[in-house]
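Hi Y.,

Following your request, here is the sequence exactly as I used it, all 97 residues.
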Amino acid sequence: MARLKQAKEVLQEAYNLFNQASEKALPPLALSNVDSIQNLLTAVIRRESLAVSRKTSFPNKLSADLRKKLADVLLLLDKVDIEVIKANAKLPAANKA
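Below is the corresponding structure, written out as tokens. Let me know if you'd prefer a different format.
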């Protein structure tokens, strides 16, 4: 699936950008392991929550982008392409039947 390969490449870039902007590096990214990707998503969400509760600086835009890309790869691994769903949702009702 070409879209999965592209999504993994974009995820790797977002992961690297986030690690550069973050004080503490994230756990290693294993793109072939679903559990690793899910754990990484959980870690990003927890760090964001801690930063908000402690009122510390945090790369919010990079965090949101990384979470989006992690979720996209997880969905693609489950054979769900959110971009296809969005495209189909924009079609007129007559074309959906």
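The chain has a mean pLDDT of 88.

Thanks again,
Q.
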